[in-house]
Amino acid sequence: MQQQVLYPASDSHIALKIARHSRCSRCECCYGLHPPPDLHVVLDDSSPGGSVLGDLDQYGSDDDEDTRPYLETCSCGHGIPEHGADENVLGINEFGRVGRVAVRLDELLQDRGKLLDFNYSDVDIQSLKRQMKPFNSSNSSPRASG
Ligand SMILES: [Zn+2]
Ligand SMILES: [Zn+2]
User: Fold this and answer.
1) Tell me, what's the pLDDT at 136?
2) Stretch 33-47: mean pLDDT, rounded?
3) Which ligand does the CA of 36 lie closest to?
4) What is the Å distance from ligand 1's center to 127 Cα?
5) CA distances from residue 68 to 8, 33, 71 in whole angstroms, order as listed
6) Could you give the CA distance from residue 3 to residue 90 in angstroms, rounded to a whole number?
7) Which has more pLDDT, 136 or 78?
8) Listed residues: CB within 5 A of ion ligand 2
9) Fewer Cβ within 10 Å of end Cβ, the chain: N or C?
10) Nearest CA to 44 among 74, 20, 11?
11) Do 22 and 33 touch, CB atoms closer than 8 A?
12) What pLDDT score does 65 carry?
């Protein structure tokens, strides 16, 4: 049986969302935090009121603490801080900036029903992802700001 990990649907766990859309600083070939194949990622859409699924765990009352952890380890073996989401490295302002971009990216993915598809990409996502890069990166961008 596969282990299940959660992926946040709301704009919480910003570091995880940043990591998802950021390259691994340790690996050449990792373009964003993605789960190892033995992990099954489920959406943490813990919305108040009414569960759509017929999951009859009713004895938990309001203390329905989910024991499943959030996704925090990439298939490449590194964690969230290595994937560009270390607040100590970015600084609070930059962390907030890329956090907002990451949330936008997740909203795009959610619109497409691809929030849990870690391989999915399209033109809009590609262009938005460019804003995930720190300003001091050495690529020559035609525009100074976006
Ligand atoms: Zn890595
Ligand atoms: Zn990785």
Assistant:
1) 55
2) 89
3) 2
4) 23
5) 12, 18, 9
6) 31
7) 78
8) 24, 30, 74, 76
9) N
10) 11
11) yes
12) 64
Report the separation in Å between the CA atom of 28 and the middle of ligand 1, taken as the mean of its atom positions: 8
Query: At residue 66, does pLDDT exceed 90?
Result: no
Going from the C-alpha of 102 to that of each of 56, 60, 64, 65, 105, the distances in angstroms are 34, 33, 28, 26, 5
- Residue 61, sorted as left (phi over 0), alpha (psi -120 to 50) or beta, turns out to be left
What pLDDT, on a 0 to 100 scale, did the predictor assign at position 133? 83
Query: Distance from first CA to last CA of the chain, Å, rounded?
Result: 45
pLDDT at 3 over 70: yes
Asked if residues 16 and 85 have their Cβ atoms less than 8 Å apart, the reply is yes
pLDDT confidence bin for 143, thresholds 50/70/90 = low
Closest listed ligand to the CA of 25: 1
For residue 87 the two structure tokens come to 């607040």
Q: What is the pLDDT of residue 58?
A: 47
Residue 7, strand partner residues: 43
Exposed / middle / buried, residue 55 (Cβ in 10 Å: 0-12, 13-18, 19+): exposed
Angstrom distance (rounded) from CA 114 to CA 83:
20
